[in-house]
Amino acid sequence: MSDDRDEVYGQLLERFRAQHARAPRSPERRALEAELQAQGLDTTDFGIFSSVAATTFDAERAAPVLVEWLPRMTDLVDKEVIVRSLTGTKTARAAVAAAIEATWESYENTDTVINRYRAATIALGYYGDSVLNSMSDILACMLGFLLASRLRWWWTIAWVVAAEVVVAMVIRDNLTLNILMLIYPLDVVRRWQSR
Predict the structure, then answer these.
(1) Confidence band, pLDDT 50/70/90 cuts, at residue 52
(2) Domain locations in the chain?
(3) E strands within 88-167?
């Protein structure tokens, strides 16, 4: 059964490739594909997205070129092809993780969050994070992303749990307690943290 399914998927991919080869391309798209080929990348399947059959386009290796070309493209379909190609790459996932962390670091230093920290936690004298602290948090996020991308999932979970427990025992604070106290402050936690 699996062989039959693979054969059907292979036939579908060949149809996609034939249609793709006949599709008109903008001059920008042709120039992008030429640059990708100059980098040694096979562009046969560039723009073909399949969840059932393996394609030949190496989006991970192409990521630097695609990121460089994205703002240059004027055709919306070409832009979509680049974005969809980048979406599944580790590079793109790392960039999204860093962007989310940087956004949080910016939001964390707004009056809204600072006042919430002062009202709901024991951080009465909190005036926001320093630039060094925020940058260190972003670097820690990227290190965590790197470890999570290299380790098995259960090692990643074990690392996070161990880190949370150790930090809670040593300084009576961690990410879990931080989130809890911002969303649903508990007096028992506040008293424990202030000891």
Answers:
(1) low
(2) 2-88, 91-194
(3) none
